[in-house]
Amino acid sequence: MYKRSLQLVLVIVVAVTMLGAGSPSTRFDQVGHKLMCTCGCAEILLECNHVGCPNSSVEIAELHTQMNAGASDSQIFKVFAAKYGPTVLAAPMRGGFDDVAWVVPFAVLILGILGIVLLLRMWQRRHARLTPALPDAPLTPESEALRDRIRNETKYGE
Questions:
Q1: Could you give the angle at the alpha carbon of 115 between the alpha carbons of 110 and 116, nearest 5°?
Q2: What is the DSSP letter of 39?
Q3: Contact (CB, 8 A) for 90 and 34
Q4: Can you tell me the distance from the alpha carbon of 139 to that of 128, in angstroms, rounded to the nearest whole number?
Q5: Where are the alpha helices (DSSP H) in the chain?
Q6: What is the pLDDT of residues 76-129, one digit of tens each?
Q7: What would the mean pLDDT of 45-62 be, rounded to a whole number?
Q8: Is 25 exposed, middle or buried (0-12, 13-18, 19+ CB in 10 A)?
Q9: Is 60 exposed, middle or buried (0-12, 13-18, 19+ CB in 10 A)?
Q10: For residues 39 and 48, is the Cβ–Cβ distance under 8 A?
Q11: Using an 8 Å Cβ cutoff, are 61 and 32 in contact?
Q12: How confident is the model at residue 18 (pLDDT cuts 50, 70, 90)?
């Protein structure tokens, strides 16, 4: 039992070490891939590869400065969003109005579908209530005469 516990601890230590948990370069890559370059190329900040980009080197330097100052990921995102606008974020931040911006379109879609279903049911019930049932009795001579008159008056071009 002691050997198994020791092996399990060794496997966990090796796994955490191999994954690079907490290394600064990994964190820099993760944060840098959640930001967009603001030059208009629509590229991720760390992947902006067009020649002579005036913004990517400045933003990458800012990212290094923020990380060296010990800022958390959310603080870095807030600083970048405040300076460059919300379009600098590759994905919206969670919380506040951003949650509403993600939820409202789906809620409106669901409410719209429900509204249409209710409207169709209401129309169907109204139609069933207003449509008289057809009589089972044969037509009377008066109703046959009325039918023939309607057919004659509604003939088109004959």
A1: 100
A2: T
A3: yes
A4: 23
A5: 2-19, 24-32, 56-68, 73-84, 97-130, 141-153
A6: 988 988 898 888 888 766 666 767 877 899 999 999 999 999 999 999 998 888
A7: 85
A8: exposed
A9: middle
A10: yes
A11: no
A12: low
What's the chain's length in residues? 158
List, in order of start, the domains of the chain with CATH numbers. 2-88 (1.10.8.640), 97-153 (no CATH)
Token duo for residue 7: 């092996």
Return d(Cα 24, Cα 14) in angstroms, integer.
19
How much is the pTM? 0.48
Task: Provide φ and ψ at 152, rounded to 5°.
Answer: -65, -40
Identity at 106, one-letter amino acid code? F
Q: Which one is predicted more confidently, 74 or 106?
A: 106
The pair of structure tokens assigned to 89 is 């974020």
**84-123 as b/e: b if 16+ CB within 10 A:** beeebbeeebeeeeeeeeeeeeeeeeeeeeeeeeeeeeee
What amino acid is encoded at 152 in this protein?
A: N
